[in-house]
Each structure stands twice: as structure tokens, then as C-alpha cells.
């Protein structure tokens, strides 16, 4: 089971998602972006630097991770980026008061299978506010037995696999970082099953 301090480190999936954001940076200005399980917030910070209106979130039960998000914002000259406590699968005043978002980010949030449905429940709620929203997520393959396919069907969501080579992320070193190294990283875009994908 992941320990809270795991949100205090950059993981290989974050670098890959940041690369995807940088590759598509022309589409980000003015887009409303929410990063779930932000931790060190690398993808969210890249989106903010590219002109997106970003909100960072991590579990309200992990104040160290929320403080880490705030420190990352300050270190990157982004003091205006809001940081909020959102616990996956839990309806909270913070979740209810969020304005509709265009893009939801999540790097390595599919870490522990016990959290998979809570993550997708939260994503589905956010997509109900904006049916055209997309969830851009990267994850490290840890077990061939773990799958979200049944949960995607249950929550009426669909996913599109994004090949890493399509955004120059199929390398052991990205942007001067040795992450992702030799880890197997996958990316997908999740949307409502009945949306037109725009």
C-alpha cells in the first residue's frame, strides 16, 4: 500500500505526462486544468507555465503533499496556482465548488487497485460538469492483472491509448531527466463514452 510520503517525489509517469503537455502546449492557454494526486505537481506546473488555468489537488488527508504542491508552485514562480484538498471518491465542499474543467491530469494515480474506482468516480463527477472534459493520465505498468476496463464500462467512460512515440516520450531520458528510465509507462485519455471527444 502506498505511503503518504510517496507523493513527495517525482515518479517516471509525471515526466512522461509533462512531456505530453509540453508537446501539446499550443492547446493549453486558457484551458481549465485540474491535477489529481498532484504530489510534486510536475504536470500541473508545466500546464500552468504553458498558459493553462491550473488547480492542483491532492488528498485532504495528506497535508504534507498539499504543502509540497504549494512549495513547488513557489519554487516555479507560480504563487497564484490554487492548491486544494480533494480525496478521490469523496464528495467535499472543495469538489462541489470547483468550476468545470477542460482537462484533468493524473500521473501514476492508478498505483493501488483499491483506489481505482474512487479515482474514476471523481473523474466522472468532474466530467458531468463538462461532458467534453478529458482525463489525461500516465501510469507505470506494475501488474498485468490490474485493469480499469470493467470500471470504465461501469462509469460509462472510454479510453484511448496514446503511444509514447507520438509525443517523443519513448526514451529513457526526457528533458534532461533519467526518468522514466526503463520503466514501462503507458498513457491514455479517458472521456465520457457518449462524448464526441472534442
Automatic annotation (TrEMBL):
Pfam family membership, one: Methyltransf_16
Record GO terms (molecular function): methyltransferase activity
Keywords: Methyltransferase, S-adenosyl-L-methionine, Transferase
Source domain of life: Eukaryota
Protein name as catalogued: MET23 protein
GO biological process, one term: methylation
CC annotations in GO: cytoplasm; nucleus
Amino acid at each position: 500500500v502506498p505511503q503518504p510520503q510517496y507523493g513527495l517525489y517525482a515518479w517516471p509517469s509525471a515526466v512522461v505526462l509533462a512531456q505530453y503537455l509540453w508537446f501539446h502546449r499550443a492547446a493549453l492557454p486558457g484551458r481549465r486544468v485540474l491535477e489529481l494526486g498532484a504530489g510534486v505537481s510536475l504536470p500541473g506546473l508545466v500546464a500552468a507555465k504553458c498558459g493553462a488555468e491550473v488547480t492542483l489537488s491532492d488528498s485532504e488527508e495528506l497535508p504534507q503533499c498539499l504543502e509540497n504542491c504549494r512549495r513547488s508552485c513557489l519554487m516555479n514562480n507560480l504563487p497564484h496556482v490554487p492548491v486544494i484538498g480533494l480525496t478521490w471518491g469523496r464528495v467535499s465542499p472543495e469538489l462541489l465548488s470547483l468550476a468545470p474543467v477542460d482537462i484533468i491530469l493524473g500521473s501514476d494515480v492508478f498505483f493501488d487497485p483499491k483506489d481505482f474506482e474512487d479515482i474514476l468516480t471523481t473523474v466522472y463527477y468532474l466530467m458531468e460538469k463538462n461532458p467534453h472534459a478529458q482525463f489525461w493520465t500516465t501510469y507505470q505498468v506494475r501488474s498485468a492483472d490490474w485493469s480499469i476496463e470493467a470500471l470504465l464500462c461501469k462509469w460509462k467512460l472510454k479510453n484511448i491509448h496514446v503511444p509514447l512515440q507520438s509525443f517523443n516520450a519513448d526514451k529513457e531520458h526526457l528533458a534532461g531527466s533519467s526518468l522514466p528510465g526503463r520503466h514501462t509507462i503507458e498513457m491514455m485519455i479517458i472521456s465520457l463514452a457518449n462524448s464526441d471527444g472534442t
